[in-house]
Amino acid sequence: MQATKNGICWRLFLFSCLFLESSCQDFGGQTQFICTSVPKDMDICAATLQNSVPGEDLKTTVMQLRETVLQQKETIMNQKETIRELTSKLARCESQSGAEPGDARPGGRRKDAGTKNTMGDVSRGPADTLTQLSQTLQSLKQRLENLEQFSRSNNSVQANSLKDLLQSKIDDLEKQVLSRVNSIEEGKPGLRNETEQRGRVESTLTSLHQRITDLEKGQRENRPLDKFQLTFPLRTNYMYAKVKKSLPEMYALTVCMWLKSNASPGVGTPFSYAVPGQANELVLIEWGNNPMEILINDKVAKLPFLINDGKWHHICVTWTTRDGVWEAFQDGVKRGSGENLAPYHPIKPQGLLILGQEQDTLGGGFDATQAFVGDLANFHIWDRKLSVGEIYNLATCSSKAQVGNVFAWMETSLDIYGGASKWTFEACRQLN
Length: 432
What we know:
seven-stranded antiparallel sheet, 8 helices, alpha+beta
């Protein structure tokens, strides 16, 4: 009986050792067998149970060890994921800091509704800042040229004095821009002060803009409300003029205006009229390498105009809903005609008329690549088809000028946005 009991105890002892060994191997640890001396007259089974880890404690210890290992594995996985995420962000930052400004999007005349360029939604890098400063300087130069023309025609000593002062300011700004370009190209340490330098340049530009605005204000006070031109010096998605009232429903129309531009490719969009549900209700556009087009209810007719030579041109387009007949006149001469342009579709009311931008949605969705660049004046709309003689008289100032009965060119009829400017304009003086 004692031998049997001893055998059972030995088996229990060996089973405990094997269990401990397998548990240790689960955690990659080294295992050892520990021998303990037992008094000769002591019960081997009792000694074994006394020196070994109790079953419940053993299970608790094993579970705690496994839980610790799992927690460590989870921590390691989280750290690896964090490292991968940080590495990815670092790579993106490095690629963006070394990237060149993107090219303008190629494509056709239209794009998906709602697609819109934005300004100021990302931080500008040095290259973007220099581009914006260069464009601003070009805009200021154009406005100074207009001031110079105005001062010559009016013999204004004050205008000449301010013009010289502003020209000097612009020359200083150009030197600063050139210095920054050289610093970027040569990698000079001066780039560390870029933020402070940018602040000084932009502060000077703000002061310069204010001086020009004051001079423009004085000029506006001395001219009739219809003797003005709108100037769009840059191809942007934020310079435009909005007509304050909508067009009525029309079954015929004539649109006439004076334009001057040397933009290439394409002068852009002199005007666009959008209504709810139709962004291309009435649009005049020359985009990319396409000829100038007139759109009515999204239907297109190509116009034989050639105007991007930097000279003033008078253009008119007539249209009637019956058979969609249209005619195009440049400088008083009929250059083309056609039919089937949105036949029997009246121009809808309750829309929005924008000068200088093409609308992809009602009152928005402007695309800088479709913007008008140049000067626009004497924009008029009639709800009838003008005769050939009437159009010739408008283009040559042969008689008293007619004004549009739907929209007449007046400063009080427009709201100007984004830096587009107004200047004195005399159509007949341009012809002399």
